[in-house]
Amino acid sequence: MGKSSSVLSKLKWLFMAVAAVILVAFVGLYVTFRASLPALDGTMSSSSLDHNVLLERDKNGNATLTAENRGDLAYATGFLHSQERFFQMDLSRRLAAGELSELFGPLALNMDRGKRLHRFRVRARAALDNMPQYHRDLLKKYVKGVNDGLKDLASKPFEYWLLQQDPAPWSDEDTVLVIYSMFLSLQEGSITSEEQRFYLEKSLDPRLAKFLLPYKTEWDAPLQKDENPWTPQEIPPSTVVQSHKMGLAFMPKRDDVVPGSNNWSVSGKLTKTGAAMLSNDMHLGIRAPGTWFRLRLKLKDDSIDVSGVSLPGAPLIIAGSNGNVAWGYTNSFVDTSDFIELKINPENDQQYLTPAGYVAFTTHQEKIKVKGADPEIMEIRDTIWGPVYDMDNGQHFALKWVAHDPAAVNMGLISMEKVTTVEEAMKTAPGNGIPAQNAMLVDAQGNIGWINFGALPKRRPGDYGRPGDWSRGVLGWDGWLNFEERPKIYNPANNRLWSANSRIVSGEDYKLVGDGGADIGARQQQIRDDLMALGTGLVEKDLYAIQLDNRAVFWQRWQKQLVAVLKKTDDPEFSPFLKDVENWGGRAEISSVGFRLVKNYRTAVFEGMLGYLTAPCIKKFRSCDYERASHQMESPLWRIVDQRPDGWLPTDVKGGWQAFFEGMARHAWAPVFTGKVALKNYIWGEQNRSSIRHPLSRSVPLLGLLTDMPKAMQNGVHQNMPHISGHDFGQSERIVVSPGHEEDGIMNMPAGQSGHPLSPYYGAGHDDWLTGKPTPFLPGKTKWSLKFVPAS
Length: 792
Hints:
25 helices; six-stranded antiparallel sheet; alpha+beta; globular; 792 residues; single chain
């Protein structure tokens, strides 16, 4: 008994000791994590300041900076961004530079290889040299603020403890890399689109390729009237597919999303105040924290008072209002890149043909540092047009892209802080060095306008929709489109403007800017129709309601087609589905069983049919992916589904089109057929749950409990309606604002302001964004104040 009691006593003390060690470790970890929280109150001094600066935060962390000159504002913005979001800034610069492997090891090596092709760190230095001195001076102030903010933290940001790394200081070129990261996010898909069209055209019957790759569809809703409106394409003869001799082929589904946005405006003739009004919701991948940082920048002399969203890593307001003019964007998907066929010297494979004759490739060595492994040396060949890009067929091309030119990337957007009219803002368009965007502009006088911000290539006459031979000097770029040359619209007669990543212009203007993989016009058309239904006396909530419009207009014809299929079937297993499909409600709502049935059915038909039709491409080119070739394939697909031509079905489909449609329905609704989900529980919200996570939470056990936003069912869908929402993709901000009436404006944003999970406002505002509750555009009552003073 005594020996047993002694053992138990020792075990008790052992357990207590282990518990104490765990407790001490937890307390130490907690203290370390807390030490990297930003300063909220007090006074900071810096030799980089000329005058005092005041940083005020409201209860949600929404920030206002007030200074006496623009340089001090830039410094304080850098300090603020650094303390709140340095890790996210670091990821952006490393993504663009191809330097993620240095932080994450071999896991990121393939991604880095792809990005190193662009040599953006080298190009960033060239872009800096091309900037006016004023912009470079502001950048230096911002960079000083970033590095002072990082040093002022009592501990490095918590992510670096988890990665066992130290953060590298910020530099001027890093801010340019952050801009390049947006080029990659918004324009790299256009490059892929041209590559994928090349694969389809090289592997399919030319008639089939042309049919599957239209430039116009019945969904188009451009701002300019079409001189030659869309007309339905004739379905090619079945001989274009009979050579396939293949069965049903599903492509692995990624549920691809199109990085883009919605925006629209109404003139002062339609608003209650007489000032024009802007609505903007930019669609991006969403993580915790979000892409944007809410910010108001003010000078004491009132020469600058601009509010909106900033991009951590840059000292600018990206979209917002300055009291006179408000602006926002959608990704334009105009053609900003070209593939050039390289003609290799048959006597020297290190040379290629140019208008000046054969010249040698330029070779660059890129060193990729890899955490925990030896560095990798990557050799990149370059041409007079751009880097060599090798496609799957072994053919060599050069890639010419706007982002590769130093003149196309700059700090020109700072001019938007002081413009006073839409006309003045439109004239800044060519000099705003950002990825080409549909800029929607409104002013306090009631004017509205649309123009593309960013550099647009000025091409010589010719066909640039496919790779071409530039060696004769006939094809090529001759600089950039200036203000007079580029398409623009100012104060249209209907007092409304809209864009949603689809084709905006028509005729000669469309030929001028080209197609860069534009989205199908379903969202744009629905927004246009919503706007046309509005009357006069409009206020902010009227435009905000369109952002949350989840009517399933795009799927209406699919619902009718599916009802017909279910009524025609002889299979009793389909009987329970008919009622929900007939009474689907016509909306992408959380509780809708019918919408989920219709949406998934259409997806299955799309994947099954187009997977089969493009199977020869998949077989010939390992990288072939029809979904990346065009976002317009809905139109030809519907023609096939609606007309049900003979000879177009896969060889293993027996029983004709009815059997094919039933098979697609069974495939789409497999969870119900297999009994995994009861039909009554097959609601849309279960499929469309948010999954907004910190970049490290997937690989660090339990971190997600601190950092990730709660998963929640959502209305809306990730494509083809105004209310865009997906698992980790959606409306990265929502803004409705009328210049001069910012106090009545609306803004909300997912995942909140802070990048630190122990912040008192971490995730603040996320629930309002999730539920669509409108919240104020301007920061609220001050809760925390931090004063910056010049060092004595």
